[in-house]
């Protein structure tokens, strides 16, 4: 029973803290920062994927040209 009361108190405290952060706009800024980070990571992944794909196509063409000669 003691653990249940402690858990409920901790949960209520966390809800209070999150609500205060939300009222101050901190969570909006954090959300925007996380969104920017995710967009940059996605862009970098797409660049790396496209470059790898381009290199693989070039390698394939070079191999085909070598066997055709």
Automatic annotation (TrEMBL):
Keywords: Coiled coil. Residues 27-69 form a coiled coil. This is YtxH domain-containing protein. The lineage of its organism: Bacteria, Pseudomonadati, Bacteroidota, Flavobacteriia, Flavobacteriales.
